[in-house]
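Following up on my earlier thread - several people asked me to post the actual chain instead of describing it. Fair enough. Here it is, all 255 residues.
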Amino acid sequence: MSRTSAKREPAGTRARNAPKKRDREVLDAAARVFYERGYADASVQDVADELGILKGSLYHYIKTKEDLLFRLLEETHDEIFQVLGEVAAIEGLDPLARLELYVRRQVEYNIDNLLRVSVYYHDLDRLSVERRKRIVSRRREHEQYVRALIEEAQANGQADPDVDATTLGRCIFATIIWTYRWYREGRDDREQVAAVCSKFAIRGIVGDVARKPARGGKAPARAKAAPKAKAATATAAKAKAKPKAPARGRATKAA
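Reply from S.P.:
Thanks for posting it. Predicted structure:
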């Protein structure tokens, strides 16, 4: 289930459409300018200045400023889709292990591409309606993939079955996405952050499963403690029925 959902498009299919070296330089420059100035305040001239070329030369690659933003976000999705494909292609992982690896790899990607990721989440809404829909539809591929893994883990008894898988998926993406807001190079360790985020996400999915029966399974283990409780009650009853010896102090006083 988890692997087929990720293989609707073979990993590397879009690689043939990867931008050429100059295209990559243009998009990298756009990412820097949009990050530093904000998309709304940036201009095509700013991007041309960043590249050290004439504004007219830049129009060889684009028609409008929005073209730069759209191509930047499209390429970002190409790259994170490749991450998904690589995780899905690994053999022998249970759903939780696959999900932990997915979270780790996505966090690492965000850390390695902070400018692009920041522009993505700050300026996605600047796209025209149709272009925004195209980007969001590609985002849903990841949402469906993660939800499928969570549901598989719940069905296997590895994750809390009483929590909505869609809600858990949103929490997973919140963990992945928000690293771009607080991660600081030199202060935070890349590998440690990725490891902590992935473990944090998985523990949230597992939840209280250890204290709950699997769907269709036996009663909780704590129900088996009932016989001990019954024995303890009987012992307490005997102790109550046994007459108590008078306290020494009281006996002396009575004499």
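The radius of gyration is 29 Å. That should answer part of your original question.
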